[in-house]
Amino acid sequence: MAALREVSRSARSLPLSQIRHSYQLCQRRCAATQAAEAVLQDLETDSTLGAPELSPEEKKIFRPWKRAADRKYTLPSSRYQYHPPKYNRGPLHPIQSPPSSDPIARDFVPGPFNLPRLRQTYQSTVASDLMTLAYNHKPPGESHEHEQHEETTDRLRGWDGSSPYHKNRQKRAPRGSPVLKLVERDITFRNIPEIKEITIATFVPEAIKEQDYLLVARTMLLAITGTTPEITKTKSNIAQWGLKEGERAGVKTTIYGNAAYEFLDRCIHIVFPRIKDWKGIKGTTGDGSGNLAWGFQPSEMAIFPEIEVNYAMYPSKMLPGCRVFVKTTATSDRQARLLLQALGIPFYGELRN
């Protein structure tokens, strides 16, 4: 009875058969613990880190590098070395290339070390929405060669036939433009528009007379992009501005991947909302090939958090503005504008295709 009183009240309420079963389990556990302790006793307690250092005589004998240098033949590469295949010969070939996430792969790129919020939003929401909004149903079996032919004839000029050499010649390019614009392709799951790169450039004509303006511009772009900018030179002579060809009067830098999405995220959620009476980006911007651009005034550059936190380091009268060029994988300004609108950039005025 004295032993039963030492047991807790909840244990005393259990039936006798259950108490016996739990007692047998405890005995088994104790036996397993004792067996594990017996195995641990057989292990060596000494570590190789505490081994004594080799004597000078032993060091002369133990020279693996000398043994490898004296070896007249190389070790078989199939057993001691692995080189991934240089060419991918199909999914049914017995030798397959390792995935790009494997460090031994030829196309291995470490990272990504971070995932920007705007890029994650694009991958989870914007990409599927763009494909749905721009879906153009084409019934299977229907021919679309006639539409493509009409679109090509509007862009190219034909020959008048005044010479026999005009026969079977290709169409001529349109007048006034040395390069044809890209034909807008339908958005499918293979070519959803996305951000390819962003170029930030600034023009500082005052740097011709005083190089400190160029230093401030480089420091500003380095702070907001995290990359080292390059100095640009003038390409022509402009007498009204006192510019000569080949003079250093500008700075530019290009960012890719996650850095581009992070810069665009700061513009959308920090800089644009704090600009007073900001309407948005003009709808006529673009080069016709899916690349859009906008500019920042010198007073608006101070809104960037990287400059605002150390604003005293930058002379306010020497801080220049900049021009932002967003290059996308879209084939028209309409698709690029649809992408930036989905990311949160508004447009105003007349919209140009």
Automatic annotation (TrEMBL):
Stored InterPro entries: Ribosomal_uL5 (IPR002132), Ribosomal_uL5_C (IPR031309), Ribosomal_uL5_dom_sf (IPR022803), Ribosomal_uL5_N (IPR031310)
Domain (Large ribosomal subunit protein uL5 C-terminal) ranges: 249-347
Biological process terms in GO annotation: translation
Domain Large ribosomal subunit protein uL5 N-terminal: 191-244
Basic and acidic residues bias spans: 139-158
Keywords: Ribonucleoprotein, Ribosomal protein
Pfam assignment, any one: Ribosomal_L5
Region (Disordered): 78-102, 138-176
This protein's GO CC annotations: ribonucleoprotein complex; ribosome
GO molecular function terms attached to this record: structural constituent of ribosome
Xref: PANTHER family: 60S RIBOSOMAL PROTEIN L11-RELATED
Family the entry assigns: Belongs to the universal ribosomal protein uL5 family.
UniProt name for this protein: Ribosomal protein L5 domain-containing protein
Organism whose genome encodes this protein: Diplogelasinospora grovesii
